[in-house]
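B., you asked whether I could sanity-check this one before it goes into the benchmark set. Here's the sequence:
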Amino acid sequence: MSGPASLDIRNENTTALPFAVVKLNPEVVEMLEKFEPNGLPGFLTDTRPPSSIKFGIGDIISVTIFEASAGGLYVPLEAGVRPGNFVNLPDQAVDNDGNITVPYAGRIRAAGRTNVQVQDDILAQIKKRAIDPQVVVTSSQQRSSLVSVFGEVRTPVRFPMPSAGAQDRITDAITRAGGISGAGWETWVVLERAGKRATVPFGNLVYFPNSNVFVQPGDRIYLYREPMKFIAFGATGQQGEFNFDAWRINLTQAVAKARGLLDIQADPASVFLYRREPRDVAQRLGVDCSKFDGDSVPIVFNVNLQDPAGYFIATKMSMRPFDVLYASNAPQVDVTKVLNFINTTLVTAQSGTTLVNNIRFPGTTTSTTTITTSGP
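And here's what the prediction gave me:
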């Protein structure tokens, strides 16, 4: 398919152009790599591990009370001396008001509090009546601090957050679900947290450790499969939509996937990459963003593959999903098209004249009929 001429794209002085033109060089590639959107930290305001798990409505809580000797508030005198002198209260769920009930302590606030806070509250209520009491509060069943992992995983799972010890990261949560069910380079991860949602390629979690953030209570992690693709058209060996078939590819590999540039048609100095960049990145690239609205700016990157250095630059330029690669025709190709059209027209006209001269009617020596055989 035909596209814009290279001169039209490079016409940076035309303020009406709906895009900016940036020539690829080592400095530009380094800048793009530095600000590559490679993870979740920019989406999250806090990437620290979760604090102590707090109880929520519906959680099942176990309360154990120890006394120094029998004959106190909870351990009867006839029980004698036994290791611990403790009593296990029946497990109970945190009610809709966020409370539990403890004998002789009354209603204790549990929702939104840690086990240590609940222990201290119970102890404060019974310490004057029990014999040197100690209280241990644990979670028997978590129903509020759950993490869900579903989608393109082997075993969708919903599990409670660890109340102590090692903290899970996103890849740990995916491992709990049996791992991804497809190829890593075509798997995307959606993290939903506190009403917000962010999507990253699975490879980002593996290759960028800062993207593999800690899981928080209530997180929902959804995985889906969608091959990363780019589009190539113009003077390439093959035009269409192409899969990355890898987690990342560079511009040189993209050109190769499109069967390279056409020798007799393409202008190697006029290979262009269309994409949108964040506004702050565009400004760092020297783009005048005053004529563009929104958080992103359409940019056309130009690489000169006629220059050997251009190949080294292209190998450093990472492709992104939905990038558009365009190879412009060489200027002489358009001239050749015109000449071919003129030549075809002249040949057609000459054939028409020959046909007129060859037509004869019976009894005449010249044709009295005019036949038009010109082309369209």
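One thing to flag: Residues 27 and 218 are 42 Å apart (CA to CA). Otherwise nothing jumped out at me.
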